[in-house]
Amino acid sequence: RALIELPDGVLCDSLVDAALAYYEHSSRKSELIESAYAYYFKGLRYYEAGDLSNALSAYLEADVRLARTHEIDLRGDLLMSMGRLYRKQQYVNLSSSHFAKAVTCFEHTGKKQEAIHAMIAAGSEYYRIRNMKYYNRYCKQAEQYAEELGDTTALLNLARIYATEEADNDRYEEALHRLQ
Question: Nearest Cα to 77, choosing from 132, 40, 125?
Answer without folding.
Answer: 40
